[in-house]
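Agenda item 2: coenzyme A complex prediction
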Amino acid sequence: MKESKQDVIQLLELPNEPGLGGVRLLLFDAERLPTHLSFEVGKLLSPAELRKSAKFRFPKDRLIYLTGRGMLRKLCGEMLQVPPNEIIIKEGQYGKPYLEGFEKKMPFNLSNSGSLISIAFEFTQREIGVDIEVIDKTFNYWEMAGYYFSKKECDMVYSHRDFYRFWTMKEALLKVTGVGLIDDLNTVDLSGRMNRIPIHDERLIPFKDKAFTLYTFDNEQIAFTIAISGAQHSDHFVGCMGNKDNLTVRHVYFY
Ligand SMILES: CC(C)(COP(=O)(O)OP(=O)(O)OC[C@H]1O[C@@H](n2cnc3c(N)ncnc32)[C@H](O)[C@@H]1OP(=O)(O)O)[C@@H](O)C(=O)NCCC(=O)NCCS
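Presented output:
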């Protein structure tokens, strides 16, 4: 994965994968945005978003929400040629945000970890979900894996990096559906290249017989997954262990 420029806001150049052709991914650090820009985008939020931001207990969480929503509005305004503060962001049944009037034209999803924020846009009318995680090497991943991962996945987890790779796959998959995290995460087994997943949670029933493709990138610092609706063709399935940036492509089919 290459970065197209070293600006504070980076448009990441995604690997040359057919399924990623319609995707644009932006990454920035909320704590490194110039003050004038944080201020400028903070002013774009709707009254409801401002009320929500006022409820965050910690200033860092407030900053992340304000800059995430603000940058989202600024970018959408530029791309759609509409005033950013007039954009209406609505939420689906389980909280997934979408742009009213542009839900088909420009699906998006947002994720943050630490002070990093990623916003993924899709321009070919497919649904998108994204999850980014900064790898915390002090975290007791083994306990979490035992609780949330399938037996086969646990057998593939030897390091923090392995844990975060699987975690972002699960979260991005559930975010592309709009359902968000479910209780029985261990029933969503993503250990193979092709994964047939029986539906246990009734919120996933609308996705019966639907396919998704997961693109996961990871290195020693960061892991993230972009999930796209549909079975996208790929010849790519890079092995799970390695020191360089890694791309892993997985297919999912709910039944
Ligand atoms: C969606 C969810 C996985 C996000 O968890 P998180 O640890 O905050 O993860 P991320 O940083 O990756 O994602 C946050 C972003 O995901 C988006 N999001 C929220 N709910 C979502 C959903 N159901 N599906 C997809 N994306 C969602 C939002 O853009 C949110 O950021 P914002 O509030 O600043 O706009 C988690 O909130 C969840 O499981 N929700 C379940 C649904 C739920 O409880 N809904 C309550 C209302 S019914």
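Discussion summary: The chain has two domains: 1-125, 127-255.
Owner for follow-up: CH.
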